[in-house]
UniProtKB/TrEMBL annotation, chain A:
Designated name of the protein: Sorbitol/mannitol ABC transporter permease
ABC transmembrane type-1 domain location: 70-260
Predominant place of localization: membrane
Membrane as UniProt keyword: yes
Domain of life according to the entry: Bacteria
Family to which this protein belongs: Belongs to the binding-protein-dependent transport system permease family.
Pfam families, A to Z: BPD_transp_1
Source organism (scientific name): Tianweitania populi
UniProt-annotated location(s): Cell membrane
Keyword field: Cell membrane, Membrane, Transmembrane, Transmembrane helix, Transport
Gene3D superfamilies reported for this sequence: MetI-like (1.10.3720.10)
Protein's membrane topology: Multi-pass membrane protein
Database matches in InterPro entries: BP-dep_ABC_trans_perm (IPR050901), MetI-like (IPR000515), MetI-like_sf (IPR035906)
From TrEMBL, chain B:
One cellular component (GO) term of this entry: periplasmic space
InterPro entries per UniProt: Bact_solute-bd_prot1, SBP
Protein family per UniProt: Belongs to the bacterial solute-binding protein 1 family.
CDD domains cross-referenced by the UniProt entry: PBP2_TMBP_like
Protein name: Sugar ABC transporter substrate-binding protein
Source species of the chain: Tianweitania populi
Keyword annotations of the record: Periplasm, Signal
Subcellular localization, as worded in the UniProt entry: Periplasm
Organism domain of life: Bacteria
Pfam families: SBP_bac_1 (PF01547)
Leader sequence segment: 1-22
Amino acid sequence: MARTASTGQKIAWTVVAWVIALVIFFPILYTIITSFKTEPEAIAGISLIPSGTFQNYIDVETQRDYFRPFMNSVIISLGSTVLALIVAIPAAWSMAFSPTRRTKDILMWMLSTKMMPAVAVLVPIYLLFRDWGLLDSRIGLTVMLTLINLPIVVWMLYTYFREIPGEILEASRMDGASLWNEIIYVLTPMAVPGIASTLLLNIILAWNEAFWTIRLTTTNAAPLTAFIASFSSPQGLFWAKLSAASTMAIAPILIMGWFSQRQLVRGLTFGAVK
Amino acid sequence: MTLKTLMLGACSLLAIAGTAQAQSTTLTIATVNNGDMIRMQSLTEDFTTKNPDIQLNWVTLEENVLRERVTTDVATKGGQYDVMTIGNYEVPIWAKQGWLLPLDNLGADYDADDLLPSIRSGLQMEGKLYAAPFYGESAMLMYRTDLFEKAGLTMPENPTWEFIADAARKITDRNANLSGICLRGKAGWGENMAFLTALNNSFGGRWFDENWKPQFDQPEWKESLQFYVDLMKDAGPSGASSNGFNENLTLFQQGQCGMWMDATVAASFVADPKNSTVADKVGYAIFPSKEGVDNHGNWLWSWNLAIPAGSTKAEAAQKFIGWATSKGYTELVASKESWAAVPPGTRTSLYDNAEYKKTPFAGPTFKAIQAANITKPTVKPVPYIGGQWVSIPEFQSLGTTVGQLFSAALAGQSSVDDALAQAQQVSTREMTRGGYIK
């Protein structure tokens, strides 16, 4: 029998959920508020009421070109996500449906690469990129972000695939489906929610990646992370302009996240209840 | 026949396009985001009109990120940048490593002898210039003339720290949210340690002796650090251990500081009536020294333009640097904006200019820069150059570690004695590890 919650409990939990959500969202909200303040207002202390100036957005747009870094962000995050999925779907399929004794070890090894601080391999990667002519190129950055996010993508897909009954795949084999047809026409449609949430999460991770995107680019391939970084200043006031630049940089991904939240939640909770 | 003509025409067009492509050079310039650099970016049309074959690409980054980016690139000869904006801390170290190209072709009318000697001396090696100064700064005291008058104080021509401390305590009014003095407290080699190193210089102290032995166990450091902590406790703003340049600038602009000791470039901000509520009430004085010590801190910083050894476009890069750091550029800024907007602290001729002399901060800034000598920064002899920094590669990390210890002492998390003992221990270990102490 399902447990029933009283109205009081429901209200209490709703309030708690709202408070937690507001706490998590507050930094973004405050960034947006600050972007409408003047520089002296921005640094004067915590205040939730801006004077409502649009000057920061005008300054940001006049000082730097927004369109090129925006397009770079779109290309790099979408490109790296598609590339990661192409590699990760067969990898996760083989580990989920044809596990060996070492599958768990391989998965753990893949994840362990995420535990290393990125700066530890900065110089070797930089030298490789220099020698291969990949510095400041979209291709180089796309490959780099693919490799960075691949362990998470494989792990997520592996978890989703494990939830799919192997019998269904066996049945398709009995019906004469080839390996390729099995992955494309049987497995993939069943795992769409999982793949969709992996795709969305990977786009968000790639969009926000700041370490490599700033260090491996200069002008041609520099995405929005580099655009934001350019507004910080050692001498002089810059908080309001920085907030405006940040708002412009996060707006596309925020909007995308808002519209796809149903898929995200569905995918992230996929397999949570057996 | 027609096809042949068409093909010939197409080939000719391609050849012309190819030649045009080959002749056009694109320079990638790495820079920091401050007012003078942004202004330069908006005025580059003057350069590209005179040099139509050179295009400019700007990479603007936060100071620490820029430092890390350009260091990686210059050390690996990545060739990503053709012109870099670097500080006078990096120039001697990088030039010695062979990471920078000498600037020997900045143009016939460049007049390198016009560069301020104190700035120029830090940018050359064996008589060759390795970076050209874009703007320079020293440090000076900015104070509220109205509050001094109210307290019956007169700023002496050469103030001592004893006078400054007394004045700060007199001016402080906690009820009116007014602090007598605002000083840097945020940890970092370019933050609190810039001020504390200069302060210690003016107390007769030094970072290392002639054999690179750290000097934090000497009386000068004890006296200067104790002086700073006590003064900030009595007359500094609350939460001073997290205040850097920008935080103190805001406090001073909002009328919450009686005095502020910081980089001379601050003068143009505090005197700006658009953002400062005290613009018409600011006086300037030279960096104080301890009674009986002839040393005014020797704070000297310049942002300079240099060409990394990995660049393949050195000729065009020199042309650009020659333009950006020339006398002509200062005149261009003055004609497009105002003399107050001209990048300060690099050329003697600027300080001879009658129009520039009319700006309220020109005289005090010039005096402060002239008084600074980074080749002989301390009273006692030292094996390094540098006023508010030490010209060794290890200083960035060592300075920041010591800065954290001193910031903790300011916040009351440790005593001055403990902070100094730890600083001595850490720096002895680092200097031994670096091979300075045998």
